[in-house]
């Protein structure tokens, strides 16, 4: 009878505790919301189970019962630990509305109606998505659009200034040297050709030297003292029938050859001492200075919106050759450098037009990378173009989707040419475009590009 009383008292106590827990769970949604109520329900269930086990009579000496009780306790503990934490509540001082009062017990006959909370709903937390790794293709296109594309305003202004200076220089030469048959000056260079335009800061000014083919002939470079097929000499012919003075260019002869050095020196003196650049610059709203110390014929132009470097090149066109008055450094004079620039640009654009290729984009990126890298700047320009032309003969897929593949392939080809120390010209295989590079320079370039084959992003980093 006493045992029955104890069990009845326990049931009444358990019933009272259960009523309190049920009442708390019934009103939890109003206080804590759906998520909070679910969390509280799981935790309350686990606690209730623990209390039930603590107050229930144990089966003494029953190891299975004890093991079962222990396992259920671990499960309940794991249940509590695994319960997701409710979202952090807003602090009291941050709320514009008073906190809801604790829920009151429901009276008999009352129903639980949902209440509308006037406080603004909490802003859901947005989990930040992980950063997406860009492919080499995307990095190349991004590099091209962000760093290599020339702003149209700058390009237009640079070309306008260059054309105006070209006109002024043309008028001066005609007035100063009317006996010399210079052709019409024209612009050239990266900004016009689109293969290596990085910024609107450099333009070439080509000055044609018109020769009488009956009085002049070309001597191949391999037949000269330098034994270099990249250079030519221009020889005065038939002096016994047409003595010196018959050609207006005879004043620039050294021996029997038209001297590129003497012609450059004469033009340099004119640029520095004879032309009123302050007046021309004032007329064009800019400041123009000839570069005195340079062996090149160079002008520096400063405008409010752009700074421009203009290089003047005397050029001779004979026998389908384009020769520049750009002799190599050293004691050798009279040499003229064969230029393939016009043929390079024409061929690349012809190939791109034939297969909608991305050779020009690839070259622009490669030239930008090499010009900005101290170890690779001597590779920019003509050498890269010839590598791309060689590669185009064996790789036909130059679509824009294959830009990354072709970029890496050009790097591999360059490493191969540097290992041999020879890059043959696409238009004349006798010419080695690496002939003027030092061995240390070749080693440094090869090492840098060899690393870049496996990690091309090295070349796209800011220098």
From TrEMBL:
<keyword id="KW-0496">Mitochondrion</keyword>
<feature type="region of interest" description="Disordered">
    <location>
        <begin position="81"/>
        <end position="104"/>
    </location>
</feature>
<feature type="domain" description="Mab-21-like HhH/H2TH-like">
    <location>
        <begin position="359"/>
        <end position="445"/>
    </location>
</feature>
<dbReference type="GO" id="GO:0005741">
    <property type="term" value="C:mitochondrial outer membrane"/>
</dbReference>
<dbReference type="GO" id="GO:0007005">
    <property type="term" value="P:mitochondrion organization"/>
</dbReference>
<dbReference type="Pfam" id="PF20266">
    <property type="entry name" value="Mab-21_C"/>
</dbReference>
<protein>
    <submittedName>
        <fullName>MID49 protein</fullName>
    </submittedName>
</protein>
<keyword id="KW-0472">Membrane</keyword>
<keyword id="KW-1000">Mitochondrion outer membrane</keyword>
<dbReference type="InterPro" id="IPR024810">
    <property type="entry name" value="MAB21L/cGLR"/>
</dbReference>
<keyword id="KW-0812">Transmembrane</keyword>
<dbReference type="InterPro" id="IPR045909">
    <property type="entry name" value="MID49/MID51"/>
</dbReference>
<dbReference type="InterPro" id="IPR049097">
    <property type="entry name" value="MID51-like_C"/>
</dbReference>
<dbReference type="Pfam" id="PF21297">
    <property type="entry name" value="MID51-like_C"/>
</dbReference>
<dbReference type="GO" id="GO:0090141">
    <property type="term" value="P:positive regulation of mitochondrial fission"/>
</dbReference>
<feature type="domain" description="Mitochondrial dynamics protein MID51-like C-terminal">
    <location>
        <begin position="156"/>
        <end position="344"/>
    </location>
</feature>
<dbReference type="InterPro" id="IPR046906">
    <property type="entry name" value="Mab-21_HhH/H2TH-like"/>
</dbReference>
<keyword id="KW-1133">Transmembrane helix</keyword>
């Amino acid at each position: 009878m006493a045992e029955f009383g104890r069990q009845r008292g326990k049931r009444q106590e358990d019933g009272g505790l259960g009523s309190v827990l049920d009442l708390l769970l019934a009103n939890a949604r109003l206080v804590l919301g759906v998520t909070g109520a679910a969390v509280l329900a799981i935790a309350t269930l686990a606690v209730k189970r623990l209390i039930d086990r603590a107050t229930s009579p144990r089966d003494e000496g029953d190891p299975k019962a004890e093991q079962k009780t222990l396992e259920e306790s671990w499960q309940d503990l794991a249940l509590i630990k695994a319960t997701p934490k409710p979202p952090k509540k807003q602090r009291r001082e941050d709320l514009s509305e008073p906190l809801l009062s604790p829920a009151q017990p429901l009276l008999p006959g009352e129903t639980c109606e949902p209440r509308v909370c006037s406080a603004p709903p909490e802003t859901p937390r947005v989990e930040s998505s992980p950063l997406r790794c860009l492919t080499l293709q995307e990095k190349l296109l991004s590099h091209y659009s962000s760093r290599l594309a020339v702003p149209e305003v700058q390009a237009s202004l640079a070309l306008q200034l260059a054309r105006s200076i070209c006109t002024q220089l043309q008028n001066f030469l005609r007035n100063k040297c009317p006996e010399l048959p210079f052709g019409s000056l024209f612009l050239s260079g990266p900004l016009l050709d689109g293969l290596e335009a990085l910024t609107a800061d450099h333009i070439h000014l080509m000055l044609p030297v018109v020769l009488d083919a009956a009085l002049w002939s070309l001597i191949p470079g391999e037949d000269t003292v330098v034994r270099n097929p990249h250079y030519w000499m221009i020889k005065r012919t038939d002096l016994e029938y047409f003595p010196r003075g018959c050609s207006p260019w005879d004043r620039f002869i050294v021996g029997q050859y038209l001297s590129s050095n003497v012609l450059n020196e004469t033009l340099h003196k004119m640029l520095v001492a004879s032309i009123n650049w302050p007046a021309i610059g004032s007329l064009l709203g800019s400041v123009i200075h000839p570069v005195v110390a340079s062996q090149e014929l160079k002008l520096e132009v400063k405008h409010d919106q752009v700074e421009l470097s203009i290089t003047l090149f005397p050029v001779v066109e004979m026998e389908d050759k384009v020769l520049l008055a750009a002799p190599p450094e050293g004691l050798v004079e009279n040499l003229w450098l064969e230029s393939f620039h016009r043929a390079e640009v024409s061929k690349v654009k012809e190939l791109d037009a034939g297969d909608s290729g991305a050779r020009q984009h690839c070259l622009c990126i490669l030239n930008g990378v090499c010009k900005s890298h101290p170890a690779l700047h001597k590779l920019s320009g003509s050498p890269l173009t010839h590598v791309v032309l060689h590669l185009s003969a064996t790789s036909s897929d130059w679509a824009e989707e294959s830009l990354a593949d072709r970029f890496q392939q050009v790097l591999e080809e360059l490493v191969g040419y540097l290992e041999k120390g020879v890059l043959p010209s696409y238009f004349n295989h006798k010419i080695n475009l690496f002939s003027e590079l030092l061995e240390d320079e070749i080693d440094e370039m090869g090492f840098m590009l060899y690393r870049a084959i496996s990690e091309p992003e090295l070349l796209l980093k800011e220098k």
